[in-house]
């Protein structure tokens, strides 16, 4: 009899425990779902070697649409080091077969060149390519269709600002990014050290005169790592900036907004569970080929120095990814490819869309 009673009591306690757990789970706040959602293509831009360029990777893309086609500038990597290359195509289905033109054959020349950013600077009617060669460099052309027309590189700074120097006195800056408002141009960069920096110059002085270099965001190293990009949101007073972070399952991007390029940045989608883009919120209909959403660039509404995103059109993001099986390889030899993300649901940026006449804007 005691045994029976004990069993009954034990059963009551167990049921009570389950009920308590269920009640606690119902009462507990649920994990917030990512507000940005994306689908990814398979790799769309691929490395292509020739006798002088045994490349294994394409990385760090910059993309503009001009003269009826996409122009993609990118870093290449391989046994001979880092360099820059260019590809163009009219349709995305043509991208995987697009030939690469290696820019060391242009006046940009050989040597360490990486992480390009390209835009049309309307006041001078000239295209600018910003890239790293140790320090921030730029090259220009009036004809984006001719990859051999880029000028020899020139530096933005005569000396390295003290604020970007490490404890050893060496510069800790990379991944340079220029965006302009109506009166000033701003140069952002990261340093793989948990800091986002900003410098500025007058619009009329660009590309000369950069100074007032300051830290504008700071966090743990892995949470604010590299590859920042900043855009104006069309039809609004807002800007959005994204910075690459390192997570336990690969690289991802966090995002902030501000109403000024020199203003304070407020979190928009800045956590591992609610990122701008990362493994937590990207679907791969053709099969997951990467765990990383790494250094890339949004497809803009225009191509000038304002770097405008259209919140009324689905966001698209050309990014670099790499096969997870390559983990542990020498960094220079990691087989990066470029994939394209497309936003698939309403998100905090699309919520900024304002009504406009039907037919306004054209999807490329």
TrEMBL record:
A cellular component term, taken from the record's GO annotations: extracellular region
Predominant place of localization: secreted
Alphabetized UniProt keyword annotations: Glycosidase, Hydrolase, Secreted, Signal
Record keyword DNA-binding present: no
Cleaved signal peptide residues: 1-24
Keyword Cell membrane: no
Pfam families recorded: Glyco_hydro_62
Described function: Involved in the degradation of xylan and is a key enzyme in the complete degradation of the plant cell wall. It has a specific arabinofuranose-debranching activity on xylan from gramineae. Acts synergistically with the xylanases and binds specifically to xylan. From small arabinoxylo-oligosides (ranging from arabinoxylotriose to arabinoxylohexaose), it liberates arabinose and, after prolonged incubation, the purified enzyme exhibits some xylanolytic activity as well.
Name this polypeptide is given: Alpha-L-arabinofuranosidase
């Amino acid at each position: 009899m005691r045994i029976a009673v004990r069993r009954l009591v034990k059963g009551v306690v167990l049921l009570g425990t389950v009920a308590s757990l269920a009640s606690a789970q119902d009462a507990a706040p649920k994990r917030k779902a990512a507000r940005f959602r994306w689908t990814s293509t398979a790799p769309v831009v691929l490395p292509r070697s020739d006798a002088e360029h045994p490349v294994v990777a394409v990385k760090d893309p910059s993309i503009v649409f001009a003269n009826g086609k996409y122009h993609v500038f990118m870093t290449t990597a391989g046994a001979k080091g880092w360099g820059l290359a260019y590809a163009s195509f009219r349709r995305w289905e043509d991208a995987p077969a697009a030939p690469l033109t290696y820019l060391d054959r242009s006046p940009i020349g050989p040597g360490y060149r990486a992480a390009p950013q390209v835009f049309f600077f309307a006041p001078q009617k000239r295209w600018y390519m910003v890239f790293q060669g140790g320090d921030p460099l730029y090259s220009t052309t009036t004809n984006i269709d001719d990859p051999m027309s880029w000028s020899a590189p020139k530096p933005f700074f005569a000396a390295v600002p003290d604020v970007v120097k490490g404890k050893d006195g060496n510069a800790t800056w990379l991944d340079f990014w220029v965006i302009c408002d109506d009166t000033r141009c701003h140069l952002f960069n990261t340093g793989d050290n948990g800091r986002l920096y900003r410098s500025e110059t007058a619009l009329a002085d660009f590309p000369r005169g950069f100074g007032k270099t300051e830290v504008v965001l700071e966090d743990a190293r892995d949470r604010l790592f590299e590859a920042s990009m900043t855009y104006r949101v069309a039809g609004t007073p807002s800007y959005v900036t994204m910075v690459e972070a390192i997570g336990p399952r690969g690289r991802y991007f966090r995002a902030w907004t501000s109403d000024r390029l020199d203003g304070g940045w407020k979190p928009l989608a800045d956590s591992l569970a609610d990122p701008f883009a990362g493994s937590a919120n990207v679907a791969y209909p053709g099969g997951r080929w990467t765990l990383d959403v790494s250094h890339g660039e949004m497809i803009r509404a225009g191509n000038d120095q304002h770097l405008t995103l259209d919140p009324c059109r689905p966001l698209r993001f050309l990014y670099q990814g790499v096969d997870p099986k390559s983990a542990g390889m020498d960094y220079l030899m990691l087989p990066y490819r470029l994939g394209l993300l497309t936003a698939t649901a309403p998100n905090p940026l699309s919520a900024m869309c304002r009504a406009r006449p039907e037919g306004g804007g054209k999807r490329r």
